[in-house]
Amino acid sequence: MAETETRARTGTTTTRTAVRLEAVTKDFGTVRAVDAVDLTVRESEFFTLLGPSGSGKTTLLRLVAGFEQPTAGRIELAGDDVTATPPHRRDAHTVFQDYALFPHMSVEQNVAYALTVRGVRKAERLARAHEALTTVRLDGFATRRPAELSGGQRQRVALARALVDRPAVLLLDEPLGALDLALRQEMQTELKELQRTTGITFLLVTHDQDEALTMSDRIAVVRDGRIEQTGPPVEVYERPATAFVAGFVGTTNLLRGESAVRVVGRPGTYSIRPERILLTDPAEPPAGAAASSAGRRTVTGRITDIVHAGAHTRFTIALPHGDRLTVLRQNLTGLPQSARPDGEIGLSWDDKDAFPVPS
Amino acid sequence: MPAAPTPGSRLRLTALLAPPLLWLTLAYLGSLAILLLSAFWATDSFTSDVVHTWNTDNFHELLTTPVYRTIALRTLSIAVAVTVIDALLALPMAFCMARVAGRRWRRPLLVAVLTPLWAGYLVKAYAWRVMLGEDGVVGAALAPFGLHGPGYGTAAVIIVLAYLWLPYMILPVYAALERLPERMLEASADLGAGAWRTLRSVVLPAVRPAVFAGSVFTFSLSLGDYLTVQIVGGKTQLLGNVIASQVTLDLPMAAALSAVPVVLIVCYLAAVRRAGALDSL
Amino acid sequence: MRKRKTSAWRSAAAVCALLLTAAGCGSGGDDDKGGHAPDRLGKGEGKVNIIAWAGYAEDGSNDPTVDWVHPFEKKTGCQVNTKTAGTSDEMVSLMKTGQYDTVSASGDATLRLIASGDAAPVNTKLVPHYKDIFPALKQQPFNSRDGRMYGIPHGRGANLLMYRTDKVKPAPDSWRAVFDDAAAHSGHVTAYDSPIYIADAALYLMRAKPSLGIKNPYALDQKQLDAAVDLLKKQHKAVGEYWSDYQKEITAFNGGDSVIGTTWQVIANLTKAEKAPVKAVLPKEGATGWSDTWMVSAKAEHPNCAYKWLDWIVSPKVNAQVAEYFGEAPSNRKACAETSDPNHCAVFHADDEKYFQRVHFWTTPIKECLDGRKDTTCTDYAQWTRAWTEVKG
Predict the structure, then answer these.
(1) Which of A136, A323, B218, C22 is close enough to B165 for a disulfide, judged by CB 3.0 to 4.6 Å?
(2) What are the boundaries of the region Disordered (chain A) (predicted)?
């Protein structure tokens, strides 16, 4: 899109940084919601802040939007220091979790609001509002009131409203949280598509790891007001920097201390993704022992639980000494004969799939 | 679609609703009907007794005597002025209470606004009489600026009525502002609107029905008032006074006069209803 | 929807009809208006409800030394509830409620109360002090009908001209000060808020414009009324406020909001008591005034106590107290011996019928001219009421 290119040209020398946070801290009374966070979001990137509720990710977003003032630190938008700039002078728009549409305005007026405020002439205003509505596939709803729309439609209006004047950054606060699963998945695809076609920097906040993994170019995992790890979805998933990340992003088998020595064969803390473990018939050496050969680790255990979940099946396997492993298996081929409740089963994984994480 | 009520539940509902409905019809609409009806009677001018002969002289007199038109217009203007002043005062006050003041200050502020309602009407009106008098504090406060107090008269009536009815305007506006989600204001600022723009485009439309709701009180209370004007109105004559003075002498004429504020209020309610304000009452 | 509306209208109509019937029932013809005077009195009912002018039923709350209500209660066991009225119209309407036993009605209320049947004839034999009332006050047109007394005369006096001695100079001696010269005190002139005040203007016009031919300020033909209304409209421009509540009049003079206007002696006294520099005079044109009568309600619930009150209020000592406090001439000639100022009766011309010819007692204006003119019809009180509304604009 033409506007995106314009923005790219005006991008500063700081290698096209859309958002930068430097040692940003935010205290609410005695509670530290954000603790010396450094963060860089590149231009035209789909960046996600992923974390459990209360982790401070929404506060981070509100700091970028300007709704909150940092207790300490510096915030930049496109290279400009906006730490003290009020929200209405920041080139960033927010899509709120509850959409925050103006109930007394029509869809069209809602969408055109940013243009109205800037004094854009009516004809142009309407044209661009309709363009934005078309982008979110809501042309034809222009004269309705927000109250007459469904949740998904309101979500789209909120998107159109925030996109209508092509802000440098779009801030999305759990935008899909209120939608049902099917609609959520549909919107995930649409959001990603929208980001790609508009080239606008998206900064999304979510607690949903699927959402984060599906849509993002990069993810920052937030915990207790700090960023635990930043990186592309694959990296965050495959190489969690901390035990928390490993546990929060996807499911994992976390092994530490004695368990690590027994199961992985080395001291430390290790994460093994359940889908990386293969199920085999009980192997030699006999049950209970673990062995390594040719870069593979093999153990034997007993199946305590089998959950069939459509495309895959989840096994819970008890190892001797009380260790437990979860195994995910795509339902592609036949299972080993012993893969039945209480059956003896062999497990094996590549040594490098037991990924060491700092504890 | 809710299920149709069973005969038993319908009976119980009827029994529950009948007494209040009867009360509403008899005491409320009934008295209004009687009032309107008595406007078509006459009065023995000597004994002031009501003579039950049907005629429309009262309305004829009401419509043809210029002084009644003058008084009706004056009353209407005062009611409008009071309503406008109350709206202008209530908006910033309610905004401070609901949005600016900290959460723990809201209740004390609300109580402060409501407290005057507990004091007697006459007490407050007489207090204003003292304050607005020749040697009252209002005059004394204005004296250093070379200004003169308003004295007793129309201005004093507007001031005192605006004071008396202000809580009735603040309360609905406050409630509307408190209900207004913080998100709305943030969304407006987020989309580039400054404080004034947000006030104009988001806050005011959101409280508009509440202002109308409050204005129903301020307008109709002002329209019917006759005590304040007696106390601080000087020689000002309002519909309420004329009705009050006629009630003793010429009840049918007073009834005919009472139809004027009733008609004005009905017109006002109709206008306000169109604006959608009654939905929030 | 339509059907529901129709039925709603139908029930509303039914309610109206019901109420109409109820309203109609209360107005049955009753030719024997006013009931009968009792032949003898029974025991007191322990209570009496009084409508009085300010200063007529003092219980010491305004001035601890001015109290004739408590001694009455002690003597008779009748608890007194007093309702102070500001105008004759108020008295008439209060009496119509039937909740009061007795009223100190002026001449512009008495005849209306007699005609409407709200006041009962009084058996003067049951009021022992009646025999000492000045004969000139007995069997007057405003307190009797067909030779029957409808009340006990209380006293009489004149409406005075009060002014602030510090603001109004030189001292006025004519009503001109509140009419043709009112502009001198624009915004601070006050007048009595009642249609009967039109008579004050008429009284002034009797002298100021003899060509109008006004003989009696309560007998005005249309032309004369118009002249009075014009004068009052002129006065209106200078009026600060009208008064009918005596407390309001006191604070207005005390604060300087009013500096000149009509008053009663009792108001002048009370204002002086608040240290305001005021003086009340009887202007040279004479004045309107009142001759009051204690009447008994035809629907009195406490007639015995009412009669006891009638006798008490005209007993020499009390009559003297009231007369001195209110500033009027007593009705009981023996009261003249009881006044604290031995000259009170002389000062207030208690027995001076010549003086009272200059005072035009409040009377209700009626169509038949009260001055005896037969060639024209006069304006009645209803017209005066409308005229008064117009004056105030």
Answers:
(1) B218
(2) 335-359
Reply yes or no on whether the pLDDT at C7 is more than 80. Answer: no
Within-domain flag for C229: yes
Tens digits of residue pLDDT in A223-232:
999 999 999 9
Chain B residues closer than 8 Å to C381 by CB = 45-46, 249
How is domain A254-356 classified at the CATH fold level? Answer: OB fold (Dihydrolipoamide Acetyltransferase, E2P) (2.40.50)
Amino acid at A338: S
Coil vs helix vs strand at A343: coil
A229 conformational bin, left if phi > 0, alpha if psi -120 to 50, beta if neither = beta
**Cross-chain Cβ contact B34/C251 below 8 Å:** no
The Cα of B33 is separated from the nearest Cα of chain C by a number of Å equal to 7
Residues of chain B with C-beta less than 8 angstroms from the C-beta of C239: 234-235
Tell me how far apart the alpha carbons of residues B239 and A291 are, in angstroms, rounded to a whole number: 104
Residue C175 distance to chain B (closest CA, Å): 20
Check whether residue C140 and residue C206 sit in a common domain: no
Strands (E), C172-285: 189-192, 239-243, 260-263, 278-281
- Quote the CA–CA distance of B31 and C280 in Å, as a whole number: 47
Domain A2-248: give its CATH code. Answer: 3.40.50.300
Q: CA B71: distance to chain centroid?
A: 18
- In whole angstroms, give the CA distance from residue C385 to residue C392: 11
Domain span at residue B124 reads: 66-280
Q: Cα–Cα distance between C183 and A80 in angstroms, integer?
A: 73
Cα of C323 to nearest chain B Cα, Å: 29
What gap in Å lies between CA C159 and CA C203, rounded to an integer? Answer: 12
Nearest to A102 among B190, B197, B202 (CB): B202
Question: Which segment of A351-355, B41-45, C130-134 scores lowest on mean pLDDT?
Answer: B41-45
Cis bond upstream, residue A285 (ω within 30): yes
Q: Are strands C189-192 and C239-243 parallel, antiparallel or unpaired?
A: parallel
Q: Which residue has the tokens 């049955």?
A: C28
Are residues A356 and A269 in contact, defined by beta-carbon separation less than 8 angstroms?
A: yes
Q: Is the CB of B189 less than 8 angstroms away from the CB of A102? A: no
Distance CA B27, CA B21 (A): 10
Q: Which residues of A touch B103 (CB under 8 A)?
A: none
C119, C105 in Cβ contact below 8 A?
yes
The model carries a pTM of: 0.74
Is B116 inside any structural domain?
yes
Task: Flag whether B136 is in a domain.
Answer: yes
Question: How far is C-alpha C90 from the chain's CA centre?
Answer: 9
Give the ipTM of the model, two decimals please: 0.79
Residues spanned by the domain of C303: 47-157+290-361
Residue type at C183 in one-letter notation: A
